[in-house]
Amino acid sequence: MSDKMRWRYGDTNPVVAAVDSTTVIEIGDLVSQDVDDAKPASDFDSSSNKFANAPQEQFAAKFLGVSMERSRNGGTAHSRGHDRRIRV
Fold this sequence. Notes:
By secondary structure, this protein is mainly beta.
């Protein structure tokens, strides 16, 4: 993604989701809930991870929304606080 906020207007209903320290989420990424953490749609790709064979229906069933904040790899905090959480 371009990691740039392009939202213009309209009502939003953001949720806050926890993120693992090794998970990279950029602004605009589609995000789903995986057990206790948010994961980007790219983790459902055919790369070598546990979601490699997951169908789109499984991602859709756990869909949280579009990320409104970024979460960098190895980071311990972000601009809104001292924990690993993002608004979706």
